[in-house]
Amino acid sequence: MNILVINAGSSSLKYQVYNMDNEEVLAAGRVERIGMDTAILTHEPVGKSEVREVTPILEHTTAIRKVLDMLVHAEHGVFKSIEEIDAVGHRVVHGGDSFSGSVLVTEEVKKEIKRLFDIAPLHNPASMLGIAAVELNMPGVPNVAVFDTAFHQTMDPVAFRYAIPNVLYRKHRIRRYGFHGTSHQYVSERAAKFIGRPIEELKIITCHVGNGVSCTAILNGKSVDTSMGMTPLEGLMMGTRSGDLDPAIVPFAMDKEDLSLTEVNFMLNKHSGLQAISGGSSDMREVTEAMLAGDANSKLAFDMFTYRIRKYIGAYAAALDGVDAIVFTAGVGENSVEVREAVCSKLNFLGVELDSERNKTGRGFEKRISTDASKVEVLVIPTNEELVIANDTYRITTK
Ligand code: AMP
Question: Most CB atoms within 10 A, among 133, 251, 255, 332?
Fold first, then answer.
């Protein structure tokens, strides 16, 4: 059985194709700059050379059409016919409190995803474009929606409610939902396997540190608290997002700088975080390089970024009443020796002992970076959200 996994953004679309008989990736790729005459399609068929095409792609339906054409291309393709794709799995960012797991896409499900546009205006419309584009290009093929929020639906109101008037929760569902759920779930399950203990008896803190950053407290395999909130803006400092701040700053800055709602939203989502403090880059590689070369702003950005992760780990150790394992994943978490070192440097009170040699060696595989004597296992586990989506799609469409 072959499954196409789609992750649609407002102007981009990433894809992967799996043969689920052996969970083998057959091809991957992305379409960038959708909406422009100079859109870029990059296609990477496994075992063949990469193809890059610059071509006008004005909307998502055309983007999917181009991807499908590439998948059956005589030279670069991996299938003879599109009919060889049995199902499509979609990453959908916000499932609100309507979805606590992945579902087959029906008219009802689409209605619900659209209803959530209100609380996820930056994300859900793009997911719907991806689903609509597949329905048009591949009629009759089942679609499955996999939600970033679903894993966190096990949180208790104590963790997910905000201390604001009840009416805002009742009328508008204003509460913490959490994101990166497929990643937190996947790496926590892998971590339990790595350690060789059942997840049902473990306290794990997962740190998804990429462009977006979030930490999750996982008790016995279930998310009990997570740092992102009603939107992915809350919590840790990120590439371009502010993370936590005093909410009173928003009206104050709007007043002082004469900012509109749209402008302040844009500022907090796109012009804050590492980029704002370092004075230029949102990329941790560049921030670290500049810091090591002596740039004071980059050092402050790095220190704030890592200090805040450390604070959340401390908070979640308290929420869990202890911790067996801390897991680093995603672009920064999997690759940055410096970030992991800084985060773990003052966690001795928890019994964390980092092995700096283990921390430095090797990339792209699961590894332990704590010492053998450390009371807490510190692990690096590469995330694989696409595989989770493919597995859920397989499970739901074959049951
Ligand atoms: P992600 O959102 O998981 O794709 O992560 C993307 C981010 O990972 C990029 O913005 C980089 O800042 C970061 N990254 C990738 N490779 C490295 C590296 N070797 N060292 C530090 N950061 C990295």
Answer: 332
Residue 303 is a catalytic residue: no
Model pTM score: 0.95
Mean pLDDT of 267-277: 97
Residue 10 pLDDT more than 90? no
Residue 361 lies in a domain: yes
Structural domain range at position 347: 196-380
Average pLDDT over residues 337-354: 97
Please report the atom of ligand 1 found closest to the CA of residue 208.
3
pLDDT tens digits along 171-225: 999 999 999 999 999 999 999 999 999 999 999 999 999 999 999 999 999 999 9
Pocket mutation for ligand 1, best pick of 292, 332, 335, 338 (most atoms within 8 Å of C-beta): 332
Question: How many angstroms is it from 328 CA to the middle of ligand 1?
Answer: 12
Contact assessment for residue 235 and residue 243, using Cβ atoms and an 8 Å cutoff? yes
Looking at residue 167, the DSSP 8-state letter turns out to be H
Are residue 216 and residue 112 in the same domain, yes or no?
Answer: no
Determine which one of 148, 225, 244, 246 is catalytic: 148
Task: Provide the pLDDT for residue 361.
Answer: 85
Is the pLDDT confidence value at 123 over 90? no
One domain, residues 50 and 117: yes
pLDDT score for 330: 96
Query: Which residues, including other chains, have CB under 8 Å from residue 25's CB and lie 6 or more apart?
Result: 16, 17, 18, 46
**Ligand 1 center to residue 331 CA distance, Å?**
4
Residues with CB under 6 Å of ligand 1 are 210-211, 239, 283-285, 330-332, 335-336
- Which phi and psi angles does 353 have, rounded to 5°? -130, 105
DSSP H or E segment with residue 24: strand 24-32
* Counted domains in the chain: 2
